[in-house]
Specification:
This protein is 58% helix and 12% strand. It has ten helices and six strands. It has helices at 51-64, 75-83, 92-122, 129-141, 152-164, 168-186, 192-202, 205-218, 220-238, 254-265, and strands at 22-26, 29-33, 40-46, 68-71, 144-147, 244-250. It has a six-stranded mixed sheet with strand order 1-2-3-6-4-5, sandwiched between helices. A hairpin with a 2-residue loop joins strand 1 (22-26) and strand 2. Helix 1 runs parallel beside helix 4 (129-141), helix 5 packs antiparallel against helix 9 and helix 8 (205-218) packs across helix 9 (220-238). The radius of gyration is 19 Å and the shape is globular.
């Protein structure tokens, strides 16, 4: 963030909604309430490569001053994040080394994910910056940090099995459709400014719903592993939290977690 001006985030109004267990309070934030326990939850949906998402997380935590901050990480991913090289020092050699290492330990699935996020690092964008910000801000306000996600090794193994059972032609057709649908809006992504603008244009619940809908049609097992199962896992952890809670998850989890919260709290 040092070499780029932080984006301005509108003041977040922290208030209680007396008659609802769930309500949208911004395009990417949902307010949830548990009348049985008194818990109040501010569920923030982010793009993992968005600087503005990180700033939104910072702003909300500072204004809400929660007792708990829950992030879409497991303990292993959190430790990996703490020990990784700063993005300013990241180079092509690191990208290739990370790819080979991931290939040896986690197979093609893990290697592919590593390569994907490494490309953003080369552009100076820190993947998962919102999680780092959330953990740092939790320490500032004295909040407990909860790693709410399923263990990354279990998810990677489930994803590998889901992909191995997929129809390759369906996957290729969906990939081609996605590429065609967004080719015009992507423009030239060879510089950080255009990449960030593209990320922000995609960071809407409507866009994410469309991606999820297409995924459900062509690779339902992958969507089950990456979204639905993890939504349930994180909601189960969230339901154990009391007081004011800020939750930081990818935007794709927002709808599912909101729906599961209503299902569990209103029954």
């Amino acid at each position: 963030l040092n070499s780029h001006k932080s984006q301005t985030v509108k003041p977040f109004i922290c208030r209680t909604y007396a008659s609802e267990s769930a309500r949208d309070v911004s395009p990417t934030t949902v307010y949830l309430r548990n009348y049985k326990t008194g818990a109040e939850v501010f569920l923030i949906g982010t793009a993992h490569v968005s600087r503005s998402s990180a700033e939104e997380v910072r702003s909300i935590i500072r204004q809400v001053k929660p007792q708990t901050v829950m992030v879409e990480l497991c303990a292993k991913r959190a430790e990996r994040m703490r020990t990784q090289k700063p993005v300013e020092e990241f180079n092509v050699g690191d990208m290739l080394g990370g790819f080979v290492g991931a290939l040896q330990t986690g197979g093609m699935v893990q290697a592919g994910l590593t390569l994907f996020y490494s490309m953003f690092k080369l552009l100076g964008i820190t993947p998962g910056l919102e999680f780092k910000v959330a953990i740092d801000e939790a320490q500032v306000v004295g909040a407990k940090v909860v790693y709410g996600d399923r263990n990354i090794d279990e998810t990677t193994e489930k994803l590998r099995k889901a992909l191995s059972s997929m129809n390759l032609m369906d996957f290729l057709r969906m990939s081609q459709s996605n590429a065609s649908m967004h080719a015009n809006s992507m423009g030239d992504l060879n510089n950080i400014k255009s990449m960030e603008e593209f990320v922000e244009s995609m960071k809407t619940r409507e866009q994410v719903r469309e991606f999820t809908r297409m995924g459900e049609l062509s690779m339902p097992q992958v969507i089950k592993v990456m979204l639905h199962e993890r939504d349930e896992f994180m909601i189960n952890n969230l339901l154990k939290c009391n007081g004011k809670v800020v939750v930081v998850v990818g935007l794709a989890h927002l709808d599912g977690m909101q729906s599961l919260w209503i299902k569990n709290v209103d029954k």
